[in-house]
Amino acid sequence: MTFSFDKQIERRNTRAVKWDLVKALYGSEDVLPMWVADMDFEVPPAVKDALTERAKHGVFGYTFTDNALQDTITDWLEYKHDWKVKNTSIQYSPGVIATLYMAIQTFTDIGDKVLIQTPVYPPFYDIVKRHDRELVTNQLIVQENKYEIDFDDFESKLQQGVKAFILCNPHNPVGRVWTKAELEKIVALCKKYHVMIFADEIHADLVYQQHKHIPIAKIDEDMADQIITCMSPTKTFNLAGLQVSYWIVPDKEKRDALEKTFHKQGMHILNTMGITALDAAYNNGREWLDQLLDQLHTNIDYVDNAFANHPKVNVFHPEGTYLIWLDFRKLGLSQDELKEFLQKEAKVGLNDGASFGEEGIGFMRMNIACPLDIVKEGTTRIINALENVKKE
């Protein structure tokens, strides 16, 4: 079956964060939103049908998860990531960030050091700071237009008594899919210094050819019990508003401890529609996802090629995710000037690079998970604005 990803769906007036908050965030209704990480594509038909049938039932009482749903997840993990996971290792959460919050509360104490790799998804900072933990950063470094891990700095930070490391893989916003060799180094060092790993792998399914996502918990069986793996179908199948995710912990003692924290916060029941969508997506969404990845790759290539002749804008080609990290530093603008330029001159709404940490100053993040015509429009707006700057 062939799926279409060129249909432009009107999302305004649906309380869509991406579209209905444009004026509030960017000051004008005519700004094209290419920011928050959801897609402008319809979900797979099987998901839409399943949700429609569930809605027709008309009763939305408390809903439980069962072995069949866990089988669906384990089948998906084996199919997509060659990862065999026991049903008993899986528990549920309304979202990956919620799980990371619970993990910090469960396995660290006030004042403990928690490491993140910057620039990185903004909530990582909140996870640490809002729990009164000490934030430690391992800045990613750029080599040959590609972000790499500074392992000397990584180890030196772990030596300072870090209790937990929050991994982002595939990495948001820089788009790296960490290789097996890189993951092996991370695991070896965390094992050496007795550091737990909280792995945000929400973009795991969105990886392009020549790259492969490897769950970090697969790297070393002896270390697997020290890893909390967070996954979800929400990025993969555009289900973020249904708030459904799961976490994987092989060790029963740690699993029970984390589950206890969830119950303390009253977070122990999933959204009925989220369960329905997860089940349908993982069971019937494989072909749709393959075609989605082809479309996203086309969109990314378009952005790459469009900016190829603009030396003042550098594109970091993502190995995974549908997010492109754009370097505007050669324009010589302050971050406020850059934001004003893109909002007022280009009329495009991107994510502010500075929100990913000080290493993101001079950068912006673009979401290309939309029909190619929208990608073309957004890119053309930026290029035209750059051309106007040259003429002045």
TrEMBL record:
<dbReference type="GO" id="GO:0030170">
    <property type="term" value="F:pyridoxal phosphate binding"/>
</dbReference>
<protein>
    <recommendedName>
        <fullName>cysteine-S-conjugate beta-lyase</fullName>
        <ecNumber>4.4.1.13</ecNumber>
    </recommendedName>
</protein>
<keyword id="KW-0456">Lyase</keyword>
<keyword id="KW-0663">Pyridoxal phosphate</keyword>
<comment type="similarity">
    <text>Belongs to the class-II pyridoxal-phosphate-dependent aminotransferase family. MalY/PatB cystathionine beta-lyase subfamily.</text>
</comment>
<dbReference type="InterPro" id="IPR027619">
    <property type="entry name" value="C-S_lyase_PatB-like"/>
</dbReference>
<dbReference type="GO" id="GO:0047804">
    <property type="term" value="F:cysteine-S-conjugate beta-lyase activity"/>
</dbReference>
<dbReference type="InterPro" id="IPR004839">
    <property type="entry name" value="Aminotransferase_I/II_large"/>
</dbReference>
<feature type="domain" description="Aminotransferase class I/classII large">
    <location>
        <begin position="32"/>
        <end position="370"/>
    </location>
</feature>
<dbReference type="Pfam" id="PF00155">
    <property type="entry name" value="Aminotran_1_2"/>
</dbReference>
<dbReference type="InterPro" id="IPR015424">
    <property type="entry name" value="PyrdxlP-dep_Trfase"/>
</dbReference>
<dbReference type="InterPro" id="IPR015422">
    <property type="entry name" value="PyrdxlP-dep_Trfase_small"/>
</dbReference>
<dbReference type="InterPro" id="IPR051798">
    <property type="entry name" value="Class-II_PLP-Dep_Aminotrans"/>
</dbReference>
<dbReference type="InterPro" id="IPR015421">
    <property type="entry name" value="PyrdxlP-dep_Trfase_major"/>
</dbReference>
